[in-house]
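Example 329.
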Amino acid sequence: MAEIRRPDNMERITTPELAQAFIDEQIALARRQIGSNKVLLALSGGVDSSVVAALLIKAVGKQLVCVHVNHGLLRKGEPEQVIEVFRGQMDANLIYVDATDRFLDKLSGVTDPEQKRNIIGGEFIDVFAEEARKLDGIAFLAQGTIWPDILESEAGIKAHHNAGGLPEDIKDRFELVEPVRILFKDEVRMVGKQLGLPDNMVYRQPFPGPGLGVRCPGAITRDRLNLVRESDAILREEFKNAGLEGKVWQYFTIVPDFKSTGVRNGARCWEYPVVVRAVNTRDAMTAVVPELDWALLQKITQRIVNEVPGVNRVLLDMSPKPVATIEWE
Ligand code: XMP
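Predicted structure in complex with xanthosine-5'-monophosphate:
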């Protein structure tokens, strides 16, 4: 297939009408390209792969086979939402793989951040490749590649992550389908909204591929992972209730690998702290910590120490980037 480029004079997709015209055009193109074949997609639940899934379901229905790999490092409610939206509402052909044990076993005792990332990335590819090998008659691989991915890989800023890591026997079997390849992120969101995806999927905060693994510094344990997941869910709920969703760029919690003393029910306790991280940024290269309402911070603190067993302190990370990165790893 000839390489598709974004035309220099292409109008930015800023209205539902323009989004619909793009969708109609891509449906026709995808039908022509895929014909009566099957197409495979790794559906993470992130904006780009979700929009590709919704678009291709409209184009080729059950010829699209989505694989959602739960690596055990997703946020609270995420795998459930992927299943509900794509299987429940869109009647997608969705294979759900709960690979939590496999990932956490491999990560057990590993403290080096790079090694953790490599294990998560490598294991993801292995699980996806295993699922792909089980399926017959699939000629195409769909990907949520977007225009900045292409520009960044051309500029040598980052390796184009998508099919890159797949083993040759898988890669060679498929032709790529990349229906949002010429879109910028805001346009992908516009198209996702027009396709009927829920707002919390379309306007989702950036979430790293290694997931909560980067928010659990040191060796990942199931108990600390659970504390990250539960405290993050409280933080997200309180930011939403305070009207901060979409106003603060990224917010999440981290659970370091040390404990400190506290007093609970009149007795000494020895529990983990939770760190709250909230930042505003334009491009994630630099970031500032927004001023947050004191009463909101008090409420979040109260809820986390009361509702998340095993946490006795809440700390606020006040560090801008640079010097600190946004994530803790
Ligand atoms: P840092 O921590 O480098 O993060 O200041 C900048 C932005 O990138 C996100 N991030 C990642 N995204 N894979 C991703 O897809 C990753 O491995 C990864 N690490 C960091 C981070 O959440 C922040 O928005």
